[in-house]
Amino acid sequence: MTADEFWWHNITGPNKFISKVLDVLNQNKVALLEVPSDLSWRHTMRGEIEARFRDVESADIVIESVDAKDDIGNEDPGTFLLQKYAAFDEEIRDGFRETKNNNIQQYIKKNNVLKNRIIWIKGLSANDAQTWITFCEKYKINDITDGSFILEIQGKVKKTDLSNIQIIPYKEYVTQYDVQLFNLQYLNDLNNYSNGWKTYISELCAQLCDTDAEISKSLIDLGNFDKTTPEELIERIADSDEFSRRGADSEHILAIVRHKNNKKIQNRIWRAQMQVFFPIIEFNRVNLIEKWFDEIQNSLMNENVKQYGVQIYDPYEVELGTLYYLTIHKIDADKFKLYIPDQADRNKINFLHTCRNQLAHMKCCSPEQIENLITLQS
Question: Is residue 336 one of the residues assigned to a domain?
């Protein structure tokens, strides 16, 4: 199974989105898909819906895609449908006359113009969609064989009081967590990273790419996270011909990169590092305290140690900044406030303090620091 098929078939959010589309169609309603302009693997989504619909629908029904811009243009829905699907029956194609008791929707349905067809209108903007929404709301479906519609709309529509159309917002089904889960599964098949690196990369790419799993996969494919900064990697994707049209939304990572909004990029990287590395730092702090518990307790009893103006007595409350301070300052020429004889542990305290201080001030760790933190995780 390819990555795009895995995304739509196996990851919870995308899979539920597709299932919802099928449910709406089987309820004899029009499915209105609110999707981002930068939807991941759009063609695979359409193929998955068509395949799963054929698996459960016994009738000989076909789903036909129509491009709003290239195929329809400025034609109104009724005229377009008659011209395209009644093209070989001039009497039906040219015979519609609107009356009080006969609108275009009733005429199309009565004459079986769309019999056994689901028309998928793709490429609709939120503004352009209103004409089709008005038309489909009046196209009453008694049975799926009457013909139906899928409206694929980029953005959010204004109308909500609809009875014949059900809006299916992509963002209510697919979240950043789905991308992180996809990343972990995709990385699981790669052997060039340790588990610690895979955990970080999955979180990093999800934070950077939000719900765009396709860009996240491309970022993972570039590799070299242990040698190259995420900024450099994502810039390569933004500059590539393959994704030159991706990034229409101003909050999409490629738009952010192209607008050189380094602060936003750094903030997303920082969020990933906070999620992954802060627990590692805290875990190692506790381990150090447990290892040198007696020495730290003696220091607290003898040195009147304060944090935020409050004296502390419990070694477990000692933060890394305080630990570091106690290990580098002396009571006199021959005695430190806290003496830890193991040089490696003193270096570890210094390193952990530096990393925690960076993250606490919204500064990102370097690839070398990340490598060391991941080593401490194992």
Answer: yes
**Residues 289 and 316 both lie in one domain:** yes
Is position 246 within any domain? yes
| pLDDT tens per residue across span 153-191 | 998 888 778 889 999 999 999 999 999 999 999 999 887
122, 203: one domain? no
| β-sheet bridge partners, residue 54 | none
Q: State whether the Cα torsion 281-287-291-295 is positive or negative.
A: positive
- Compute the distance between CA of residue 273 and CA of residue 204 in angstroms, rounded to an integer: 7
The C-alpha torsion from 206 through 208 and 212 to 214, rounded to 10°, is -90
Are 300 and 338 contained in the same domain? yes
pTM of this structure: 0.89
Q: What is the pLDDT of residues 45-79, one digit of tens each?
A: 999 999 998 887 766 889 999 999 999 988 899 99
Mean pLDDT of the chain: 92
CATH code of the domain covering residue 114: 3.40.50
Which two three-digit tokens encode residue 204?
């990093």
pLDDT of residue 378: 66
d(CA 106, CA 98): 10
| DSSP letter (8 states) at residue 71 | I
- Tell me what the mean pLDDT of segment 26-34 comes to: 95
The bridge status of strand 148-154 relative to strand 117-125 is parallel
CA distances from 105 to 81, 110, 121, 147 (A): 10, 9, 17, 11
- Residue 334 zone, left/alpha/beta (φ > 0; ψ -120 to 50; rest): alpha
Decide if pLDDT at 220 tops 80: yes
Q: How many domains does the chain have?
A: 3
Decide which of 260, 284, 301 is a domain's last residue. Answer: 260
* Residue pair 323/311 in contact by the 8 Å Cβ criterion: no
Q: Over 80: is that where the pLDDT of 102 sits?
A: no
One domain for residues 92 and 241: no
Q: Residue holding tokens 């106690």?
A: 326
DSSP 308: T
- 10 Å CB burial of residue 267 (0-12, 13-18, 19+) is middle
Measured CA to CA, the distance from residue 99 to residue 81 in angstroms comes to 19
Q: Is 162 exposed, middle or buried (0-12, 13-18, 19+ CB in 10 A)?
A: middle
